[in-house]
Amino acid sequence: MEKYGYLRVAAAYPEVALADPETNSARIAGMIDEIAAKGASLIVFPELCLTGYTCGDLLMQPLLLDAAARQLGYIAETTERNNTTAVVGLPVRFRGRLYNCAAVVQCGEILGIVPKCYIPNYNEYYERRWFSSALDIDVAKGSEYNTVNISGREIPFGINLLFRIGNARLGVEICEDMWVPNPPSTTLTVAGADVIANLSATNEVIEKHAYLLSLIRERSSRCRCAYVYASAGAGESSTDLVFAGNAIIAEDGEILYKSKRFSRNASYVIADVDIEKLRTARQRQSSFGQNDYALPVIGTDRGGCGKQCHDSDGSLMRTVNPYPFVSQDADTRREECEEITSIQSWGLEQRLQATHCRNLVIGVSGGLDSTLALLVAVKAFDNLGLDRKGILGVTMPGFGTTDRTHDNAVELMKHMGISHCEISIADAVNQHFSDISHDSDIHDATYENSQARERTQILMDLANKTGGMVVGTGDLSELALGWCTYNGDHMSMYGVNSSVPKTLIRHLVSTIALEYGDEVRALLEDILNTPISPELVPADSQGQITQKTEDLVGPYDLHDFFIYHLLLNGFEPSKIFMLACKAFAEGPYSDGRPVFSRETIKKWLVTFLRRFFNQQFKRSCMPDGPKVGPVSLSPRGDWRMPSDALSRLWLSEAEKIQI
Fold it and tell me: Which of 2, 47, 127, 572 is catalytic?
């Protein structure tokens, strides 16, 4: 997976033998062997793991300090046979003072020693009794770092060090360094660190773990980095404190893996962190680069980068969310849905206020998109204290309208208490076919688009008649695919769904449904279960929908996945394909989600790329609408692309993908 920009990292904690570096180094070396065998390029261990964090005044004993230094060399030898990088904690003497340090060892060498900056001396902590702060160390003029003699070798010593692991860069901070207002990781990441290792010995008290997780999320998000955190566990003294063991890996604000606490055994977590994604995020966030800061980089292109990066089945060692626009946690998802509909309604409210408009016109089809638009409009009117009768819902049956969608549209408008009317488009479109000499038995683009444009004309003219404005119902997924009729349903005065992907709309409607009684909830549930269709070709003999959108352009589950990773992460097609294969593979964690074959994924990826490029002209003149999530296709916001851009590079790579 290295070719896709991943680095396999691990956070580990051994069972510590207090004041026994030889036993500890043997246990650490054993864990390095085990974890490196799984392809890890970086393994992070806890603070002072070579001696134990809770040694107390024994940390002042030269015998213990010398033993720890000797055993560091033994651990370095372990990394040589495993071609990996490890970060271990130990006390180090420098200029007559003792420092709480992290040693970075790689492929048989001790690359550098990083001392702890912030020494806690409050509440249960008493570290200043033993350790000095790295912030008090003077660096020789013209030098970026000092050196310290370990086992007869001069080793770089300082806080301003970066370490090379293949193409990635590693920075190190120690425990308390993360908890202060200005952590070292800030400087390290703006200088180029992709990964931050934190060696810690965090004791357990009520509510502290939740706060710790929030800090790690914040650090990894603010620094646009991967954060590998390892904290002391079994074997540390419980005289006054309890150390439960923590191994946590985060990436850009998301906890990828965390170990179980209160385990009597050594433990670790391992994951592939996406260095390419992090660098793309930094590049996209132009203000990140305004904090540029240069630091020396130590190490080689070795350190695990030459190994195969895969787990036992040859795939990526991390979970891949098949629905990246949708939170996987039910409570979080509900909160996010409530916030999104508030953003949508607030945007519409502001437009109503700015235009002094008190009337809206919405085409209500009985489908998902128009249902959400109507529910948002109702919320906006309620918030502004306006009479819902100022919303005119229009159902416009045509050649493909089914009883199910028609009846649901009518019932929904009645329950919402809005004004509503029905205008059939059949006669007008047939007249139009006659005017342009089109055979109505030929169900081509002319046949379909004529209906869409007729409906838009009706809505626009009704808006003129009522002094209102047309609320657009089209969503982000349709805009990405160009699955809308130019100057038809493509056009409105304000598109409330314009940055909402199709896979998220279902959850938004479901969340709003909770605000209503049983009858409305049942109605919305039936709308949710209705096949997605523009209903532009006649129904079958039983009156059922024959034109299903996902049969024509592909599953929205896949297209939304493609949208997210192409536009937000800038991934190349082969990487998107690899991720989709993992996300939509059959397995024990499918949870009812659809499963797609590699052939199917490739087919619709090619379709997506072709349509995305070809249909840019529709997005270049799309109406206003609020951005609600990480991706928007508005030419005034997130996405500026020439309509005549060529898709050759992307399609060429996608078509070469081996099935």
Answer: 47
